[in-house]
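Give me the fold.
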Amino acid sequence: MALINSDRARFPNDPWQLVETVHLPGNAGTLETLFSLGNGHLGIRGAHWASADADLPGSFINGFHETWDIKHAENAFGFARTGQRILYIPDVNNFTVIIDGETLTLSESTVLDYRRSVDFATGIYECRITWQCRSGATVTTTERRAVGYQSRGTLGISLEVAADRDVYADVTSAVVNRQDQPVEDHSTHDPRRAGRHAGRVLLPVRLDGGDGSLRLSWEAAESRQRVGLAVDHWTSAEVQPFETLVDQDDSSVRYVLAVGADQPFRLEKSASYAVARAFREGAVDGGSAQDPSEAAENALQPVSAIFAESEAHFREYWATTDIVVGGQPELQQAIRWNLFQLAQATARADVAGIPAKGVSGSGYEGHYFWDQEVYLLPYLTYTSPDNARQVLEFRHEMLPDAKVRAKELSVDGALFPWRTINGLEASAYYAAGTAQFHIAAAIAFATNRYIWASGDADFKHGMGSELLIETARMWVSLGFFGKDGLFHIHGVTGPDEYTAVVNDNLYTNVMARFNLRTAAALDHPEIDDAERELWEQAAIRMQLPYDEDLEVYSQDNDFMTLEPWDWSTPRSKYPLLLNFHPLVIYRHQVLKQADTVLAMFLQWQDFTPEEKRRAFDFYDPITTGDSTLSACVQGIMAAEVGYSQAALDHFTHALYIDLDDTHGNTIDGVHIASTGGVWSSLVSGFAGLRDQGEVPFFDPRLPVEWEGLTFHLKVRGRLLFVELGQGSIGLSIREGEPLDVNVRGELLTVGHDVARVPLAPVGAPEPTIFPSGLPTASIPIVRARS
């Protein structure tokens, strides 16, 4: 399904906005995701106040969750014990507008004109609808929304009602506790979707109201976290209501009034949330743990101030984060939408994780995965290093629990949870959860990249060293030196979840080797000579499976012996995880996502160009793309090995994963890791950035269809501007001291004047033909839905 691209009349191409010009039934939940707003802490889905068919409306706060005891059908030692699920917070985006006795709804009323948009340049959502009322009046309603940035728990909404003649209006503004409302639970059909708790979850603590104000708070039944909400209303002085009714039981404020021609009624609704994240410990976002609504009240801002905060934030954001592709207007809108989602998922998360869906939906139950380290932290490290550090600080806060978890799994050091909110393992299926030990290397890799790119010495010698040391201790105790003298790591699952609990997964071993090398190179008093030598030897002797006949690195020790997948399987049977038992998938040679290819991207120095090309030729045709994490990586490596069309195809697929709902689950929230992958596709794929070597390295691969590519990078206190064109790359420092940069082996010192390097075109290599007759990268890419 090509949602946005299939109907450009309904969704016109605007480089700075996502616009919808016609409302049609269906796809409500997907559009709620696409038009959502957020700041990394607070998120509100893009639901219509006037829609009776809203699918999954609501709002979220990053980390606000409920817990429960996981009940395993067959229990075993060390299984995850504590389930965690993000909660819908009480939602303020609710209005009822009655004109001359008619309740305005998109499904029942006559709509003369419709336009809604989210503006990437300002972060402001606007929906303007012109209605033909049954009374004969023509009424226009205009709603605008924005979330705060300096005041990260705030939300501002304005609603204006204008008429072409005198009308009787009845407008109600309400707060709705959607968490405790019955909804259809799809979680049994798709493990990626969030389930819902049955019955009452949010227990009222305070429900007060008066004079157009509401002061409310609730407590989660099991986690004991509390959320407080303060709401103030303001009405235009020109049109005063006959009557204002506050119902604190229903958490609503009602205005009854006459609206005259040329005298619109304007209602502004300012909301502020505060969370007591650990009520029993007394911690709260800026106020009393006993009543977080007090903290919420203290943080209230006028709606105009919230809009101004949003505008100021995005003005600064785009000045250094925009990526411009020359001559590709169709792609530019989608690129900016993806970059906009990255800002909405991360900007004000502060010291917290980044959920797989950001704060745009409840998918994956609001959990933090390795997504944030491998797919989001490259973007954050080079555009907002302070935010990158905060994510790593959050991982560091998990160290005590990670050390306890390591002991449960009989390893040393720290074992971080595969999926979590509160620091405890929440993955009930260990084969595709706990067995993904590679999350430790992802954290170590992101730590090292941040240290390398930022030059943050305090972090390096403090929290950074602790993360590198404790993860290295985990690896050396998890693995062992075999009779062959090599270091092996058995019983793990790599990134490809269609091949689980294997021995010597190449990605895991390559990344563990990096982790051990990096820790061994630290000058830290906690590391003694014996431990350093052990790490170095494990890294030197790390087993990397290799098939001598095919001359290809094997995904694991046994992967090349598996039965090939039947590629005549109907498209309706994808994604495979929803149509085949895991054991069926595990015994076949088929990938959910890039695995060995990802290792060769992240550890680019460790493999030759020929090794990378042969691996890409072998693995790309047997990768289903059932994971949204895959297309971006496949595109980056396709660019590196010289397959320009495959690179562009994979990039375009990643770019429209949500905008066209190509995997069929955008309803559950934005695929934030994929949006991070879009950034990496442009910067590391087409511009060819490679890092963590001696200096930043560029090996560009600009598609011939593009006129150019420009972007900024924040590197070691400098702001580097990159201008890539057909036949040359230009580099200049916009802020800071000169910086050494390597372009295809040519070392140059870049200053404030543009340093332009000519680039010879890169010829396309011939794809590898394997003895087995395996199709190569020239075969069309599988486009499976998930």
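The first helix runs from residue 28 to 34.
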